[in-house]
Amino acid sequence: MPDTEKNYQEKIYDDFLSLLEQKQYGPLIRMAQQQHPIDIAACLELLDDDRRVAVFRMLQKDCAAEVFAELDSDVQEMLISTMTDRELSGIIEELFSDDAVTLLQEMPANVVKRIMRSAKSETRKELNRLLDYPEDSAGSVMTGEFLELHKNMTRAEAVAHIRKTGDNAETVYVAYVTDAQRHLEGSVTLGDLLFAEDQDVIENFMSRGVPCVMTHDDRETVSLTVSKYDLVVLPVVDKENRLVGVVTFDDAMDVMEEEVTEDIEKMAAILPSDKPYLKDSVFEIFRRRIPWLLVLMLSATVTGAIITHYETALGGWVILTAFMPMIMGTGGNAGGQSSMTVIRSLSVGDIELRDAGRVLWKETRVALLCGIIMGIATFVKVFLIDLHMNVASLPVAAVISLTLVVTVVMAKIVGSMLPIAVKRIGLDPAVMASPFVTTIVDALSLVVYFEIASALLGV
Amino acid sequence: MPDTEKNYQEKIYDDFLSLLEQKQYGPLIRMAQQQHPIDIAACLELLDDDRRVAVFRMLQKDCAAEVFAELDSDVQEMLISTMTDRELSGIIEELFSDDAVTLLQEMPANVVKRIMRSAKSETRKELNRLLDYPEDSAGSVMTGEFLELHKNMTRAEAVAHIRKTGDNAETVYVAYVTDAQRHLEGSVTLGDLLFAEDQDVIENFMSRGVPCVMTHDDRETVSLTVSKYDLVVLPVVDKENRLVGVVTFDDAMDVMEEEVTEDIEKMAAILPSDKPYLKDSVFEIFRRRIPWLLVLMLSATVTGAIITHYETALGGWVILTAFMPMIMGTGGNAGGQSSMTVIRSLSVGDIELRDAGRVLWKETRVALLCGIIMGIATFVKVFLIDLHMNVASLPVAAVISLTLVVTVVMAKIVGSMLPIAVKRIGLDPAVMASPFVTTIVDALSLVVYFEIASALLGV
Questions:
Q1: Which A residues in the span 43-82 are in contact with B, Cβ-Cβ below 8 Å?
Q2: Does residue B449 share a domain with residue B340?
């Protein structure tokens, strides 16, 4: 966002805080009712506990629930602790079921008990049903509130039905059409309804072939389907094709963002977290970083063993040691480029498993181009600078250049093929990013280096 | 997606291809009209040129334009080459303006000329206006087709207006309310319209305080705003707050996906591309990968120089060489974890520039925990295994463990602070990921290693 001029959101903060400082609570509440719940939530989070509770209590009931859903879980917990059971029940009944499920997943056990006790029995049943779906499944991110029409309704009946029930739906953009057994048959947008005539029958102007997912599909399938078909709402059906819930595009976008963060963490050899960085404890961050660091460190002892193995031979050519970091670094960088490209392409669907051959062929050619250019650059550099300074010789320059070509080709092949291989056996390709590839390529490139040196220098 | 059962999309492909093989063109077209344009586009892309042209020509005009917008640019170019100017004009007039702009940006100059010549003068003017916005600005991704209402219209007038003009709007979910000078004043969803009474005046039930962006805002601001406020449509205003266009959530999702890919490419030391991997030429991929490889390779010569500098001293302790790769590798991995975490947190907004101090404090503590554990692990390992095999000595084990602690702390501080520093001077933090951090940490960790060795071993 531009720093030069205050953006939309900063203006809201400023207005809110100045009204609060002047204790102008009337105008403050009037202003709040007109703002987006997420902005009110952001403003509330800036306040101390007492003032936050005071302002929150002044909000209207439906607005309060919307704001509540947007708050951080620690703030939610604090507010709940100040509510009577009856107030808590009021909030829970107003929340959309997916937000209520998220709340339950984040609260400590005693708060969960209190929430469940305060909820009406029907709500409690619905929440338990949603909580039963496997973590990270479509069922676990869907909401039970949606618009449902029957295919033999007329437009007038449909509008009347929506006017009566629409208030409970999370999105009032699309309505789903079902038969008597609740099988999903089609959809109509509110635009379709607006354009139709009163006596038109839904069945005659609904869209058929509505993309949908099943309750047990992975939540990644949810975000991919929403993004592929540009859906505002994605219906979720059970095994009998009965409509049981919907996922809205904003929840799908959140899933997409979380999946990307998870991928990037895996690429960086970190165990995934579901908390923002600043909210995570030092110990928790440590716990998620240390396992791979240790594994990679132990794997690196292989590299050490390789050096020890060639050590005595190396004695005569100490100069070779000086180029080791450059060769290993280049291998790591070249391999990392390929693995990150392949991992990302797999995750957005630009590459499928069946493309392995095409990827291999492409990477080999790219690697040869890169390797040869880098080999030449190094040869010239070693020849012009290092030889001139009497630290290297022509055969050494040849060894290093040749090693670079072979290392880059090897690194790019390993880097591009490992993620595909890992995906084929059903694991997440993201773990095969730079750190892992580097460790493997380090060892391989040293063997190549010393073998080429043995052959050309006779060490 | 699950491989065990065919998913929604695969079933469509199968049906489509079997109808096509049986030359059942009638049912094929009827089926196509009922499918989502993106599925028809995907099916078309599987066909050879002749059959693709034949099927495309059978589609109804409005459906054809929607399918056309979803096709790959090379297929679009091929289809355009088979169209008369009149047919081309028909497609262009049916396209939404943002899709037409994307088409123009991807076609070669001669095709662009033909498209502009075929378009009606009003369309041409609109396209030129949109093409004038800076690349990657909100203006460049918005569309000019949206629903606009006046605040003093009644609900009945508004519905009549939408029925008349709504067909041209890209989304018929939200309408924007403006005053006589087209200043953006509020919004109503079609749901609001459906729930209102005929004589209600728009002004009285519209939402005020609509989040919006300006034409020159970065497209990243667009996707952040859409995702933050969960908007189906985001209005774009000019400097005078006049409504000039809208961006729909699906285009914002595409922007988000492209930005993530760009970030990951930068993290992998690759210059960003806007083409999918398999469509990019070998030379193009090479051109985007070689610059950083060369820069990083040349920087690695510093590491070489450090080794050369300590070389003579090293002579007596060849064993130290064997641990170099492990120490450098660990530094690179530890620094990469921190830099990738900070880069991602900056990009999703979990960390702001002002949090630099908190990040530094957190990373230092995490680094100490990681460093000490790894130092102990290494000491035990060297003591138990390597000492036993007579390749190391107790002082060597101490040198390596101490070096690891210092290296990890240093790597995590460099890795976490570099992206923040780079962002502060206005550059993209993503370039400060593993490869760059590794190169710096490699050099630093070797200096630490040799200095500690000098002190403890007296080399």
A1: none
A2: yes
B283 touches chain A (CB under 8 A): yes
Q: Please name the residues in contact with A224: beta carbons below 8 A apart, sequence gap of 6 or more.
A: A349, B1
In 3D space, the residue among B372, B435, B334 whose CA is nearest the CA of residue A269 turns out to be B334
Query: Cα(A188)–Cα(A203) distance, rounded to whole angstroms?
Result: 9
Q: Which amino acid is at A329?
A: G
Q: Is B335 exposed, middle or buried (0-12, 13-18, 19+ CB in 10 A)?
A: buried
pLDDT (tens place) for every residue of chain A, 459 residues total: 333 345 566 777 788 778 878 878 778 777 777 778 888 888 888 888 888 888 888 888 778 888 898 898 889 999 999 888 888 888 888 888 888 888 888 888 888 888 888 888 888 888 888 888 888 889 888 888 888 999 899 999 998 888 887 766 666 789 999 988 889 999 998 888 888 888 999 999 898 888 899 999 998 889 888 988 888 999 999 988 899 999 988 889 888 888 888 888 888 888 888 788 888 888 998 998 898 888 888 887 788 788 878 876 666 666 777 888 888 888 888 998 999 899 989 888 888 888 999 999 999 999 999 999 999 998 888 877 766 655 557 888 888 899 999 999 999 999 999 999 989 888 888 877 777 888 888 889 989 998 898 888 876
Task: List, as ranges, residues 216-255 from A with C-beta within 8 Å of B.
Answer: 217-218, 221, 224-230, 232, 248-250, 253-254
| Sheet strands side by side (includes A213-214) | A213-214, A233-237, A243-248
* Tokens describing residue B423: 């962002």
CB contact under 8 A, B321 and A314: yes
Give the domain range for residue A29: 8-132
d(CA A9, CA B288): 37
- Residues B159, B189: one domain? yes
Residues A36 and A169 occupy one common structural domain: no
- Closest chain A residue to the Cα of B404, Cα to Cα: A297
Structure token digits, residue B458: 């007296």
Q: Which runs of E-coded beta strand occur in B52-164?
A: 147-150
Give the amino acid at B77. E
Q: Search chain B and give the residue with CA nearest A159.
A: B194
* CA nearest to B168, candidates B192, B142, B195, B148: B148
User: A440 vs chain B: nearest CA distance in angstroms?
Assistant: 11
Query: How many residues does this entry show for chain B?
Result: 459
> A277 vs B350: CB contact, 8 Å cut-off?
yes
Task: Please identify among residues 366-385 of chain B the ones whose CB lies closer than 8 Å to any CB of chain A.
Answer: 366, 369-370, 373-374, 377-378, 381
Residues in chain A: 459
CA atoms within 13 A on the CB side of B407: 38
A439 and chain B in contact, CB less than 8 A: yes
Q: How many domains does chain A have?
A: 3
Q: Can you tell me which residue has the tokens 């070509």?
A: A405
Whether residue A281 sits in one domain with residue A261: no
For the entire predicted model, the pTM comes to: 0.78
When scoring B326, B389, B391 by the number of chain A Cβ atoms within 10 A, the one with the most, hence best to mutate, is B326
Q: Write down which residue in A233, A267, A301 finishes a domain.
A: A267
Q: Are residues A170 and A23 located together in one domain of the fold?
A: no
Strand partners, B207: B187
Any domain includes A1: no
Token readout for B292 is 């950083």
Output DSSP code: residue B154: B
CA distance B42 to B38: 6
Q: CB B315 to CB A318 under 8 A?
A: yes
- Least Cα distance to A419 among A340, A304, A362, A313 occurs for A340
Residue B359 is part of a domain; what is its CATH number? 1.10.357.20
Q: Structure tokens of A340? A: 């990150």
